[in-house]
Amino acid sequence: QVQLVESGGGLVQAGGSLRLSCAASGRTFSAYAMGWFRQAPGKEREFVAAIRWTGSRTYYADRVLGRFTISRDNNKNTMALQMNSLKPEDTAVYYCAASRTYMGGETSRYDYWGQGTQVTVSS
Prior knowledge:
It is a single chain. It is built from no helices and eleven strands. The strands form two sheets. Strands 2, 4, 5, 6, 9, 10 and 11 form a seven-stranded mixed β-sheet that branches. A four-stranded antiparallel β-sheet has the order 1-3-8-7, with no helix packed on it. By secondary structure, the chain is mainly β.
């Protein structure tokens, strides 16, 4: 089992920045690829970014490429999402997720999920 807890969400103006964190407990954090997803009201959960087990490779959705940066610290069992140049369309609940076998954008391939943190970007 892996328990995931997100933090760092909040209200920010368009063009601003936020840094989300995901703290993991339970089994060996470094054994899991990690991802960030988001879900806006009335919409399906969508992929944001993913990072390989060692942190050596990252993958982003086109709509956040160049604005968001995913990172992880296996010594601290944490993952982060630095979000810059935020837009109102980035408003959503953001979730972190973990997978033993997969790094990518398919939500069904992730084994564990956090409860989410709300990000609201005002225009």
